[in-house]
Amino acid sequence: MQKINLEGLNEYVAYEKLDNNLDVYVYRKKDFHSFYAYYVTNYGALNTEFVPINEEKMHKFPDGIAHFLEHKMFEKKDGHVLEKFPLIGGSSNAFTSYTHTVYQVSGTEKFYDNLNLLINFVENPYFTDKNVEKEKGIIKQELFMGKDNPYRVFAFEKLKNLFVNLGYGREIVGEEKDIDSITKEDLYKCYNTFYNPGNMCLIIVTNEEEEKVINFVKEIEDKRKVDIETDIEVKKINEPENVNKEFDVIYQNVSKSELSYSFKLPINDYKISYHKLDLYLYIIFISNLGKLTGFGLDLKEKNLINGNIGIGTNKYMDYIVPSINVSTDYPEKIIDILDKKIKEFSLNEEYFNMIKKSMISDFVYCFTGVSNVMSYLFGSYANNKKILTTDFKDFQELNFEELKEVFNKLNLDNKSILIMKPLEEKE
User: Fold this and answer.
1) Whole-number pLDDT of residue 8
2) Phi, psi of 170 (to 5 degrees)
3) Fewest CB atoms within 10 Å of the CB: 104, 126, 201, 277?
4) How much is the pTM?
5) Which stretches within 124-209 are classed as H helix?
């Protein structure tokens, strides 16, 4: 067992790569009264074309199959797993993103019973022709409900307009034709390829002693019989730097218009780590559009926007996307205002120091609660395929000179603007 010291913090994460290549991370805090565990596979909605384990040819699987597989993992010959966790004081759930599938359990008692059930249900699939067919109707209902959610449609359209080839923006659950075409055999091929210990990790937050937890997992994994695959061949997709659509308008069942103003930036253009780049971009946008500047407050007082200006950054493969999101009755006017404001972006060392201090405080606070710790640990793993040791050090090392270097390289011309308007405004 290794101790991964989180540099700059009096914290560490216990880590061990087991003999079957499963990565196990355990964060312990003695005064936590609850636990949280994530069983993660590096497999999501984008992974539809790959060479299945023990095969030689590339195979295209239906869109939505990763999500379908997530659903089916809970159904076993002796009943539904979600009905078993409450009997031992646990609560379980799962989610599928474009890049990962995550199975969760949390609770306050019977930690080892809950962890054992989590591991065993994820490692033992049970698919039949009958239960696969039954699930199709359930997932199609989920699809239809999603298409009726205007904000979900808005989020997916934003991604479609940003990316040309990567597949971001397509339905994570698949379209109706995709769902109908999924078979038991498809599910087993995907499971055996991606639910392979070398492609998975277990992240645990608990008050239990780390070595005891890791040994408990070892005992389970030592009995597991599985073909170990560490090099999964997935079809490579080339993504151009340009956005797919620079401007688009959609109409949905909403009362107010929504505006998303996003920028597609290649991470490799900047000679610093992704994490530092993410922090610097956030600082640049907050210091020009955030509360300190009064920019949003002025727009609110003029009744041009409803609520605050939302600012966020997200990673998509080799790109980072800063976004400005606004609810407004005057989207075209706000676009003109933002166009002008972005051209006037500048840096302020006083704002930088204030924002840096606030960010450090928020980061330290995340270690005070079980769910906050898990969110941080999973976020670090999801972006890097490992939990980094330097995240807090990155905060401490932020400096105004390096911020200026990022700012001077920043090209905000590669943008995509999306407006969602009420249906009644459609001509």
Assistant:
1) 83
2) -75, 160
3) 126
4) 0.94
5) 129-147, 150-162, 176-181, 184-194
